[in-house]
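User: Good morning. I'm curious how magnesium ion would be positioned relative to this chain. Could you predict the structure with it bound?
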Amino acid sequence: MAETVALIVAAGRGERAGGAIPKQYRKLAGKPVLRWAIEAFERCTAIDNVRVVIQPADEALYRTAIAGLRLRPFILGGATRQESVRRGLEALVARTPDHVLIHDAARPFVSTALVERVIGGLDNAEGVLPVLPVADTLRRKEGAKFEIVPRDGLWRAQTPQGFHFDKILAAHRKFVGEPATDDIQLAERLGLSIASVTGEETNFKLTTENDFLLAERLAGSGLSDVRTGTGFDVHRFAPGDHVWLCGVKIRHDFGLEGHSDADAGLHALTDAILGAIGAGDIGVHFPPTDERWKGAPSHRFLEYAAKLVREIGGVISHVDVTLICERPKIMPYRQDMRARMAEILGIDIMRVSVKATTTEGLGFTGRREGIAAQAVATIRLPT
Ligand code: CTP
Ligand code: MG
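Assistant: Good morning! Here's the predicted structure, ligand included:
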């Protein structure tokens, strides 16, 4: 199989869209535009790697937007789209892929089907362009009049545009500083063979403020299959001086016994997420008999569950964890726990809840023999 990298350019300033931050970092249904685009490519099995080109000034926004995703390092872009792409391609030279798909971060709704069409086109051409016909009547303003422009033969170009890596790199190296608004134009200048495939109406580029209204509706409406999952976990106290709970290390007179780090909070939550997508439980994916998970930090289990949700195009709407113990006191750590779980899941802290209760001295938690945790996860899947 040819190695294929998706190169997402996200180094623009989004001036036409306005807003307090560049458009690729604004949220749609609670998720940054750029993240929508990254996840769209991560879902495609034919894509081996996703690389993102950003502006140095946006690094903090970028890190927040990709929290919980495992990506290779970002690449720094330039003053024009073309320069950003060129820098992206140069950064890929060290591990040269066979094919590259170059995509605008501002097109969050690219589908797996379109990505596969573009990749398929590379069997017979050195460059592949997704296009759509123009439906509206076009007119050119001449003075006070609007004159008809014949529509035949006019097409709208989209991204991702696919290329044989060495060919598009050569084109970008040759035409540095000779402006082009997309990469196919440079490929044509170099005389590469170009094929076209059908684009998608939903793969529009967010350009103006108005586009965000449409995008927000699209982002929300496609995810109306709401699922709920629950999880429960118990760990016994053992000699030690700290416990891990909801991803936070807490000094304590005891530790917790378990094959991994025994974080009952994260285990219950991992099970809740797996439950919501019908993907079994934590023991199925990380068997306690497997030496690999001995002493493992539990954020890896939770990251994995979140990745499964992304792979089927879902979003985590909300999670709620209840810790049941007499000691340690949870209250002082509640905010840190919410922040850490939000970070692991890559969602807003407002979507993460942590509660705690005692059992009034009753039962095993009352006798301080161990800690129990329960969790609920609400997930939205594509319909
Ligand atoms: N882009 C880039 N580097 C630049 C300019 C643009 O990586 N110097 C990226 C944008 O982030 C976007 C894509 O190229 O994902 C398409 O560009 P466009 O829609 O024009 O975005 P902006 O340049 O950000 O917007 P504007 O032109 O309105 O400022
Ligand atoms: Mg621009």
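The chain is about 30% helix and 30% strand. The pocket of magnesium ion (ligand 2) is lined by residues 12, 81 (CB under 6 Å).
Let me know if you'd like a different ligand tried.
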